[in-house]
């Protein structure tokens, strides 16, 4: 058997490393073995194996959100990549710069339609800002630069390199890699700021809706100053990629979910949008518009590729709005006894009391996500990642990626059970890498959001077929066993005292702990 | 909130039921709730919930392979569908007729690019023989017929219906559904049979390579008669969708995997191909051709859309080849003691001794797959499903689908641990539906195939990076805990006596049992 190994793969990894890549979330197969060899030769890119591709892509997303550095994924042809699509969908919505490396058959082998052959480009396009099929051994650096540029664009997102084995196996002289510069955000013009100041000043009611870059602490403070001057409220987009909350930051309200709630929430206010899009209904509901604030009450202060922080600061300056010192939040006395059965609100209270400074929370599911984002301002300063695209199975992988991106930080995963099942293999990666992730798994053993939606249309939840498609109680998953199976310590709790003790233990561990919190 | 529910969804399900659909493997979300309601109204289609979409699609594939009846899947927009793509890739290679129903946003909501919006057609096309976007409430029956026709074509495969909620919610008068007729295979002409007989008769060495429909027991018997007359060997394609083996069937050899092995195996024989394709290298290896038998030594007796069984029978008749009674196979005395540590061969021996008549085996992974297909002829008559497309995570879901397709039959899942992790959520479905699936989980805690490939090129398996990307021993998954977490009884065995006892218990249970068989 002749050796297949060349250094095209090494050249590719070196070019990506020069462009800032420091980590590779991998689930390789035969077509990626040259890249596995190359990862051994380029150890400055750290390799993290996962048991399932959705863990790789979700972890890459979390890694980017927390660090702003571009991670790699290494995935096996079309089908392996396909398993990573759901979390790349979220990453695309989060504008997370990720470079997917997908091995493919040698170019001369493709026409034979071997079993694993598929149309990778068609699969990758919907979740990629750029799809580059590498076909020229002399263009490895250029292809890497192309992918880096797309990933680190403004707004950035996943970029995909389809890498035939013959390109990876070819011996090439590594070129001098030219690292691409991250793109810069466009400044919002002084004229637009002045117009916004005038219109906001005249509005009878005002909402500043922040998202993306315009959710940074500086942006939140500028927004608070503006509404301190003009009146009104500051809202955040409903599903931020990452947002800093709590500590001495001013209060911020989250945009609601159902269209009727959003319409009520927005009232007759002028909605000034920075760093995100105008409010859109999450799903289309008969009788409600898709766009929930009419154009005449919308003012786009900064587009997704513009400098929202600078725009908000300039607007505050124009309005001569002074910085606001938020009131310190006296925590309400917990309204529970130690033996009280758990509720989402009690779980949130327990965590508010114990969350360490600078923790990172990975939120998935509305059971704990809603209450947390309502109360987060009362916790110490922390960052929260939410599910940006609605593709479930994000929470656990994203938590793992966050922990790898911020060594020394505590990561807390607030995870609904229904969505947790999609990528539970992330637990293995947490155990393997000894990641300090404390998981509170909200176990209500049902698809709560579906029951909520069905209730809104008065569907019969007790109908045997409808019940069988929305309840997860036959059998009830035992998450402590699932966690143990993947090497993660776990405990099941049913009351406040149990949760408090488990949480204290979890937050003190160097590695992961899963707390199965039983809910009604 | 106005009611969203209409009966477009009911009309669709009734049309698909009229066309033969009897089961729906579902993982619905908000955009599919009208279809959930409709499933309650059309209970003649059985709903099976799974925790992950790859379980739905893999189970649908297994269901079709065993029953030949078209199952439905119900999946949630692009990201939910994406999680099902890997197993649909295998289903496409298996020519399994499956109809995927994917909910999408209402057509009027699509332009707003809500979070879950994506290009579903681009995602679905690579694994679908037809992708139909339903846009006309008066075309529901026609769209259903289109999908059924594609799914049940010759060769058939997955077909995908993209179903906007506004179409499902519309009140329509159900039309008289016209069930589509399954397509018929074309007959191979008498002239081609005569030419084949002549050429085969003159060949110094002969191989009959069977696959697809030409792997049926009748086809295998006709092939045995032909080589009984002319000399030569009967081979099966390396990854059959489903093949009947054992009992009184004649011996059949499996096409090898690596190109050098296939080239040796084929020697200088004339290779007569029925129901499958000419031997192609699974991957492209430098120095080896993609097509492993040159055109001049190939004779295509029947194409994929032709009647391979009839062609083999006609060829046997033309050659006046008499039916062959295969020698009964005296089982070799097991070369082990009860306390012998397990090996793949010992596991296979234990199962050969115990497998009940008419069992169905779902094979995934070469650890047990290779030895089983070498020895299967010594077992009682049974059917084997293999991984047709190389997308891993097929074995457990496919076993679940097979059990649902053949009530009363024993299903055995011979599953490698590496690939088992991708869709372990299938265990929950097995527990929930009390499926008589006995799983032998070959736990070697590594990606054996990758180590084999790396060994072929003398890569350093002990290099820390290469080891970290090919070994699964840190931590070792505890499959008994994973199974318990999903409600499946499980036992870990390390020696022959332990395996024998576990297997006897598993094969006597009404529900699933997972046997974690530890291997070196």
* Domain unit count of chain A: 3
CATH architectural arrangement of the largest domain in chain A: 3-Layer(aba) Sandwich
Q: Mind telling me the CATH superfamily name of the largest domain in chain A?
A: Thiamin diphosphate (ThDP)-binding fold, Pyr/PP domains
The percent of residues in helical segments of chain A reads 25-40%
How would you classify the quaternary structure?
Answer: homodimer
Give an overview in words:
Chain A has three domains: 162 residues, Rossmann fold, CATH 3.40.50.970; 129 residues, TPP-binding domain (Rossmann fold); 175 residues, Rossmann fold, CATH 3.40.50. In chain A, helix 1 runs parallel beside helix 7 and helix 10 packs parallel to helix 12. In chain A, helix 14 links the parallel strand 13 and strand 14. The first copy, chain A, is globular and about 65 Å long. Chain A has 21 helices and 18 strands. With 520 residues, the first copy, chain A, is α/β, with parallel strands linked by helices. At the A-B interface, helix 2, helix 4, helix 5, helix 6 and helix 8 of A face helix 2, helix 4, helix 5, helix 8 and helix 17 of B. Chains A, B: Keywords: Thiamine pyrophosphate, Transferase. Chains A, B: InterPro entries: THDP-binding, Thiamin_PyroP_enz_TPP-bd_dom, TPP_enz, TPP_enzyme_TPP-bd. Chains A, B: It is an enzyme of class 2 (transferase). Chains A, B: One of its GO terms (biological process) is small molecule metabolic process.
